[in-house]
Amino acid sequence: MNTFGERLRELRNKRGLSAKETGAIFGLAQSTISGYESGDRQPDFDTVLAIAKYFGVSTDYLLGNKREIESADLTPEEAELLEELKKEAAFYDFLDADEDKKREIIEGLKLIIRGGLYKRDK
Questions:
Q1: 24-80 pLDDT, tens digit each
Q2: How far apart (Å, rounded) are the C-alpha atoms in residues 48 and 117?
Q3: How far apart are CA 108 and CA 100, in angstroms?
Q4: What is the pTM of this model?
Q5: What CATH number should be reported for the domain holding residue 37?
Q6: Which of 27, 54, 108, 119 is buried most, with the most CB atoms less than 10 Å from its CB?
């Protein structure tokens, strides 16, 4: 399994970037990006940091040490909010938080949703 390469491809596709464009952003050849995505090459630490910063994700997420939050047990409103949050860089800071902090944040979000402070734009 090539988690780094899979996540890099997913992130660049979400931004509508080709491997060549992605390489240009980081001063790398298209073949280097393709090598990362296929698992034939591994990036150095500075490259991992630069890619994570550019795409607004944590290095842990990019390297496969953190997975995305499962939405299976969420209410429809909570799942919708989660999808909106995934578009924000701060969401990935949440993924890196310790379990106590995550619980605290989730409880705060539930209060916002239940209290009617969260309103969808329609």
A1: 999 999 999 999 999 999 999 999 999 988 888 888 888 888 665 444 556 777 777
A2: 38
A3: 12
A4: 0.56
A5: 1.10.260.40
A6: 54
57 shares its domain with 83:
no
Residue 10: Cβ-neighbour burial (10 angstroms; 0-12, 13-18, 19+): exposed
Tokens 């931004």 sit at which residue? Answer: 15
Q: 26 is written with which tokens?
A: 């980081």
Please give the Cα distance from 61 to 10 (Å, whole number): 12
Of residues 65, 62, 105, the one with CA closest to residue 85: 105
Same domain, 36 and 8: yes
The DSSP code for 65 is: S
* Residue-range definition of the domain harbouring residue 11: 3-63
